[in-house]
Amino acid sequence: MCFKDFLVLFFLIEVAASSNEGFIFNGFSSGMVSGQNKSLDLAGVAEANSDGLCRLTNSEPFKIGHAFYSDSFRFKNSSNASASSFSTTFVFAMVPENSQGQGMAFVLAPSKEFISGQWVSYAEYLGLFYHTNNGNQSNHIVAIELGTFENLDFGDPIDNHVGIDINGLESKDSNFARFVTESGQLDEVDLAIGEGRQLWVEYDGSKHQLNVTLSPSNETKPKPLLSKDIDLSPYILDQMYVGFSSSNGVQTASNYVLGCSFQMDGKAEDLDRAKLSSIPGARVKKSRKQEIALAVGLSLAGVFLVAVISSAIFILARKKGPFTEILEDWEVQFGPHRFAYKDLVIATRGFNEKELLGQGGFGQIFKGELLGSKDQIAVKRIFHRYRQGMKEFIAEIGTIGRLRHPNLV
């Protein structure tokens, strides 16, 4: 097959839908028996675990994962017809590995094999596109993006966001990941926290309206987060596949689908949350009383400290800018030519992942260009908790500082 490391697995899954116009998966265990031709096709590193979870990505960097329903659905009766209505709901979870990862997406695609070969390493495209076809009208891909990385090239509003993507990752509409309460209040929903979240996607073919609704999985369905007036007919072909896609770059996360329901020309059936599996690595939540007691205790313990240092912080904040430089003692002896942190932020475009060259013992290495001189440089950004000690770090800086070469600044 054209997809490197492509693997297709067929699992018998409990299906509650009464016809081939929809399906419902209350888990993805191979032990669940269903009717013939009701299966899930997995590609890349995606897998259906024995505990009933569909994992799209894991801790491996620069990998993608696809999970698609094996049969296509008829979205139009002819090429010139209007796209039919559809709806879906699914519960998902993103468990950080070394970071929040890139995110995942619910996808409508004309094929289950639309990316292959060297293009799988383009992590920022969520396993959907690559740099030469992103935005092409010939893609015929509609996706609901659940993003955990802020990519300024695509106009992401923040790292934790939801977007409607048509043929590319520059969203037609997007918003911070939040859910709308009955009173209209917007409460933040952290996507990459290792907890279950539920999403509803509903398209009205007669009104040409696409609604996207996000909620913590223990909440009832709130009001839509995104409501976009759009006719999907030009972007959808007669037959389309339904599924999920995700990818990892240097920053990795395990992204899961716990359950999914889909229906053409009707409302997707509600998931049975009692049947959904628990999430590996999910944080154990404290009871409400414990949270209140902890909050009160910390507040009382910290009020004195805040009172003592608040005046000092205020004075320092007025005197120092956001990029104030601090010269540490070891730099006097070992430090080479010193660059301001502000200049390095500008040179690396804010430490953009597209400028990432690799990862070393202390942190990540980024490519940059100095403002003014246009010199090409490499910048190592140290991890907050790097594994090697301060002595090894100083030794590396000292060695670099003693080198003399025209390409070293």
Mean pLDDT, to the nearest integer, reads: 78
Count of helices?
A: 4
Biggest pleated sheet: 8 strands, antiparallel
Structural class: alpha+beta
Q: How would you characterize the overall build of this protein?
A:
With 409 residues, the protein is of the alpha+beta class. 14% of the residues lie in helices and 30% in strands. The chain has helices at 288-319, 329-334, 341-347, 390-402; strands at residues 22-25, 40-44, 47-48, 54-55, 63-69, 73-74, 86-96, 103-109, 142-147, 161-166, 173-176, 178-180, 186-188, 197-204, 209-216, 226-229, 239-248, 253-264, 356-359, 363-369, 376-382. The strands form four sheets. Strands 1, 3, 4, 7, 14, 15, 16 and 18 form an eight-stranded antiparallel sheet that branches. Strands 2, 5, 6, 8, 9, 10, 11 and 17 form an eight-stranded antiparallel sheet that branches. Strand 12 and strand 13 form a beta hairpin. The longest helix has 32 residues, at 288-319. The protein is globular, with a radius of gyration of 25 Å.
Which helices and strands, and how do they pair?
Elements: E1 22-25, E2 40-44, E3 47-48, E4 54-55, E5 63-69, E6 73-74, E7 86-96, E8 103-109, E9 142-147, E10 161-166, E11 173-176, E12 178-180, E13 186-188, E14 197-204, E15 209-216, E16 226-229, E17 239-248, E18 253-264, H1 288-319, H2 329-334, H3 341-347, E19 356-359, E20 363-369, E21 376-382, H4 390-402
Antiparallel strand pairs: 1-18, 2-5, 3-4, 4-18, 5-17, 6-17, 7-14, 7-18, 8-9, 8-17, 9-10, 10-11, 12-13, 14-15, 15-16, 19-20, 20-21
